[in-house]
Amino acid sequence: MTYLGQVWAIVHKDLTIEFRTKERFAAMASFAVLVGLLFHYALDVTVVRPQDIASGVIWMTVIFSALLGVGRTFYLEEEDGAMSGLLHSPIALDALFVGKFIANYILVAMITVLIFVVFAGFFRLNFGGHFVALIGIVSLGAVGLVGILTLFSAVSSRTRMGESLLPVLAFPLLVPVVVYGVDATTRILVGRPLSEVAGNVRMLAAFALLSIMAGVVLFRFVVEE
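The chain above was modelled as a monomer; its predicted structure follows.
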């Protein structure tokens, strides 16, 4: 089997299981809707404009939703001993990481769309004429987010602390996503010109590239321990 075939096999397996059980998607979607509902009633629009805080709330909802779902990436493999079989199979370990990453990214992308729909409805957000730019910013941030969470979910799944260890490991490394993603999204939502977010986009792209490279390189050492 070719390298791309190995990647596709992992993606197909994970997504097939997820679409059949909807275990992770249901948990992530429920969390996103509930957070949007809670902030809808907690925010006094006569005191604070929704556009001023929406980007921060949206990004943190994306991060916590991703943590809820991606944190269980290796749960099934570890639970039934399939992880040992994968490690002893001919599949390249970096292909295993890339396949897991792609499957997780598709899942997080679906939830992110839901989050924007929910918050756009509750906060009555106007995405203006830069909707495509907003999609690009969120997509870049999600790449870095999913890359880090996929790598560290492999670490946490092989410890006694399990998923509870994942936030401790991952959150410090997600600061660039929060800083540059929130700043760029805020400027888009308030109608600032695209030139003002160019630097943020470059930083998000660099972080996304580094997270994938780190995952590809380090994943072998994580799962072989």
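The chain has a mean pLDDT of 86.
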